[in-house]
């Protein structure tokens, strides 16, 4: 989760403003929302993801279904593809956010696999490995890509690579699920961070996008997500929506109100929207600053190895390249906690603990 430079959770000021208004608005009540979720929220989420003038929105061939966080949106997609379309195979990157595997397994997929993604030696995408593995996947496969800020590596495909992935997805007739959990965190620019999704829309793909508002709105425990469904035409969209409502009905029946109302109130009000964009930039700038500081500090210490990846990777996480033995030293000797694979949360770094962490990494690498 995001933390301030004081190491504290951050309730975005615009979220506080809207919550204060909600608390005294006597026109609000606790009636159930429609099964597909709050209409104002779903449309605002789609506009944010695809752009105001997206052809898919203008042509009325995209639907949003509210979900219990980004996790719930992934679950809806997995369930729908299994139950309604007969998919039994899912490929996601190696490494990835672990829940991708768990969700598809618990939906009954018998072929849950990971394609090569991370080239540890060069600290970049193993693009040939990825293409080779996807080429070998069966035709009816759901393929997950991270829209931006790949978790845990912080590295996403280049434009040229994305085109090649798109060609392969098209040729093999894969079902694409783009996991968009960090829109705004990569560049601080919401439009730019939607580019992967917008590229596939431009190509006319029918696909899914799971959107999470946990990070960019700081609404972690409000479970606010949306599944964007991009179809070829309006008829297909209506059919998918009605089937998707059956999945929602038997899963959680009805989505929660609070987080969706906050997001809808902010995105549909120009002044609040402008304020929120500043908040997203504040979070993304803080992460970039921590990356820069850690990089400079390791350089000035002369820590062996190349550390450019710290500033090149995008988003909340950094795949440091530290090996399990070095991670062990950091945890046992310095009480700095990170994943065994070397992933650190950049938001855990602050101007006050930077010196300590950099010195500890230096010691672990040189020991
Ligand atoms: N997808 C990725 C890649 C994530 O990192 C996360 C959260 O950490 C999620 C999805 C789930 O988000 P949510 O908390 O909104 O369910």
From TrEMBL:
Pfam families: Aminotran_1_2. CDD domains: AAT_like. The keyword Transferase applies. GO terms for biological process: aspartate biosynthetic process. GO terms for molecular function: L-aspartate:2-oxoglutarate aminotransferase activity; pyridoxal phosphate binding. Residues 2-361 form the Aminotransferase class I/classII large domain. InterPro entries: Aminotransferase_I/II_large (IPR004839), Asp_trans (IPR000796), PyrdxlP-dep_Trfase (IPR015424), PyrdxlP-dep_Trfase_major (IPR015421), PyrdxlP-dep_Trfase_small (IPR015422). Signal peptide: none annotated. Its cofactor is pyridoxal 5'-phosphate. Its EC number is 2.6.1.1. GO terms for cellular component: cytosol. It is an enzyme of class 2 (transferase). Keywords: Aminotransferase, Pyridoxal phosphate, Transferase. Belongs to the class-I pyridoxal-phosphate-dependent aminotransferase family. Homodimer. This is aspartate transaminase. It comes from Magallana gigas.
């Amino acid at each position: 989760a995001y933390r301030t430079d004081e190491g504290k959770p951050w309730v975005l000021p615009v979220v506080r403003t809207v919550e204060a208004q909600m608390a005294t608005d006597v026109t609000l009540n606790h009636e159930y929302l429609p099964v597909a979720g709050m209409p104002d929220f779903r449309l605002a989420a789609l506009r944010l993801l695809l752009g105001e003038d997206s052809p898919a929105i203008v042509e009325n061939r995209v639907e949003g279904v509210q979900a219990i966080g980004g996790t719930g949106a992934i679950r809806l997609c997995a369930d729908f593809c299994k139950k309604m379309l007969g998919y039994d195979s899912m490929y996601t990157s190696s490494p990835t956010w672990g829940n991708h595997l768990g969700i598809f397994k618990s939906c009954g997929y018998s072929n849950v696999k990971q394609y090569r993604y991370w080239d540890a030696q060069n600290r970049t995408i193993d693009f040939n490995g990825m293409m080779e593995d996807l080429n070998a996947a069966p035709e009816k496969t759901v393929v997950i890509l991270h829209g931006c800020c790949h978790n845990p590596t912080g590295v996403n495909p280049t434009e040229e690579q994305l085109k090649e992935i798109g060609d392969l997805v098209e040729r093999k007739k894969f079902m694409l699920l783009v996991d968009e959990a960090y829109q705004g965190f990569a560049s601080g620019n919401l439009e730019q961070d939607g580019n992967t999704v917008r590229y596939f829309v431009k190509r006319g793909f029918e696909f899914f996008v799971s959107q999470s508002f946990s990070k960019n709105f700081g609404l972690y425990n409000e479970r606010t997500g949306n599944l964007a469904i991009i179809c070829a035409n309006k008829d297909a969209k209506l059919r998918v929506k009605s089937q998707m409502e059956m999945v929602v009905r038997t899963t959680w029946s009805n989505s929660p109100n609070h987080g969706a109302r906050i997001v809808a109130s902010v995105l549909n009000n120009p002044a609040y929207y402008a304020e929120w964009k500043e908040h997203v930039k504040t979070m993304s700038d803080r992460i970039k600053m921590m990356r820069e500081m850690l990089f400079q500090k390791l350089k000035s210490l002369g820590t062996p190895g190349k550390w450019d990846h710290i500033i090149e990777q995008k988003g909340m996480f950094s795949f440091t390249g530290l090996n399990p033995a070095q991670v062990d030293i950091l945890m046992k000797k310095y009480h700095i906690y990170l994943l065994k694979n070397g992933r650190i949360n950049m938001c855990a770094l602050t101007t006050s603990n930077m010196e300590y962490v950099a010195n500890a990494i230096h010691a672990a690498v040189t020991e």
